[in-house]
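Q: Could you fold this chain for me?
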Amino acid sequence: MTTLLLIRHGTTAATGKRLGGRTGAELDEGGVQQAKAAGERIADLPVKAVYASPLTRTWQTAEHVAAPFKLPVREAEGLLEVDYGRWTDRTLAQVSRTRRWKVVQSTPSLTVFPEGESIRGAQARATDEVERLVAAHRRQVIAAVSHADVIKAIVAFYLGQPLDLFQRLVIDPGSVTILDLGVGVRPALTRFNDNGGLDGAAYRRSARG
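A: Sure. Below is the predicted structure, expressed as C-alpha cells.
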C-alpha cells in the first residue's frame, strides 16, 4: 500500500481570475504562505519522496513541502496542468461567455480545449503517472504537488466517479488530498481538500495492505 499526498500549488496573481494553464506564473505572497503551511502540516508524516508538476508554481510549492524532510523535488511530468490550448491564460470572464464553457462545466468528458488537450486525456496521463509512482514507492508515503483539475480528475478516477461529475469536487490552493493505493487493493480516499493539521499521533496507515 502506498499513501499518496496530493497537494495543490499555492496561489499566484492569476488564481481565481484567469484560466492559467501551462504558464510560468510564480507563487504570490499568499501562495508562498500556503505552500509553507502545507509543508508544516505534513512534516510529522513519514514522507519518503516529493514530486511535482514541472511548472514554476508547483515546483516552488513542492520546495516548501519538501523542506521539512530535506528531500529533493523530483519531476512528475504526468501531473502537469491541463493543456488549455488557445484558452491558456485567458480570463475566466472571457472563457465563461463561450459556448464551449458550458460543455466544460456540464459534460467535461466531451471537452477538448481549442488546440489543447481533452480532460479525458489529462486524466489518463495523470493516473498513469500516479500508477508509476505507486509502483516505485510500495509501502511508502509520498507527496505530489499538482493542479486543481488534475487532482480532481485523479480522485474521480480512483473513486470510480464519472468524469462528468468531477466539477463537483473542490480543491483549494495548498490543500492536501490523501489516497491509499496499491496493486490489487481497493483504492481509498482518506482525506480530501484538507487544510487542517496532519500530526503523527492522528495519522493512521490503512491496515488493508
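A (continued): The mean pLDDT is 93.
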